[in-house]
Amino acid sequence: MMSRRKSVTGALCFEWLSVLVWTYCWLAAHVHGLSPDGQILLEIKSSFVDTPGNMSNWLATDATPCSWFGISCLEDGLSVRSVTLSGHGFNLSGEISTSLGKLAYLQELDLAFNNLSGPLPKELGNCSELRSMRFDSNPLISGTIPPAFGNLSKLQDLSLSQLQLTGNIPIEFGNLKSLLSLSLYSNNLSGSIPPALGSLHQLSVLELANNSLSGPLPPELGNCKNLSSLILYSLQLEGSIPPTYGQLEKLQELDLTTNRLTGEIPPELGNCSSITHIYLGTNSLSGQIPEQLGRLQNVKVLFLNTNSFTGVIPAVLGNMSSLTNLTIGENLLVGEIPPTLGFLRDLMYLNLYENNLTGKIPGELGNCTKLDFLYLPFNNLTGSVPPELGNLRLLSSLQLWNNSLSGIPSELGNCSNLQVLDIYSNKLVGSIPPEIAKLPRLRELRLYDNQLTGTIPSDLGLHSNLTYVILRMNKLAGPIPAGLCSFRSILILDLSSNMLDGTVPVDVTRCPTLYRLRLQYNRLTGPIPKEIGQNKALLYFDASFNNLSGSIPPEVGLCTKLTAVLLSQNSLNGTIPSSLGQLPLLVELNVSSNQLSGSIPSELGNLSTLYELDLSDNSLTGDVPLELSKMSSLRFLNLNDNSLTGLSNIWSSLGSLQGLQLAGNKFSGLVHAEIGTMTSLQIILDLSRNHFSGQIPAALGRLQLLEYLDLSRNNLSGQIPESLDNMQSLLFVNISYNNLIGPLPESWQKFITADSVIGNPGLCTWDGNCSSWSQSTGQEGEGGDKYSNWAIAGYAISALVGALALIFFGVGLYRLRSRRLDRRGAEGCLEVWSKDVKYKEISLQSILRATGELNGNCIIHRGDSSTLYKASLDSGQVVAIKVLRENVDDRMEKEYRREVETVGMIRHRNFVKMIGFCEWKKHRFLVLEFLSNGSLRDVLHKKNAEGLRDWNSRYKVAVGIAHGLEYLHFDCKPQIIHRDIKSSNVLLDDDFEAQISDFGSAKLRDKSHLNGSTSKVVGSHGYMAPECGYSLQVSDKVDVYSYGVVLLELLTGKHPLDHSFAVGTTLVTWVESNIREARLSHEVLLDKRLLDTGDDHVAKELQLVMQIAVLCTKELPAERPSIRQVLSMLQQVRAR
Question: How many domains does the chain have?
Answer without folding.
Answer: 3
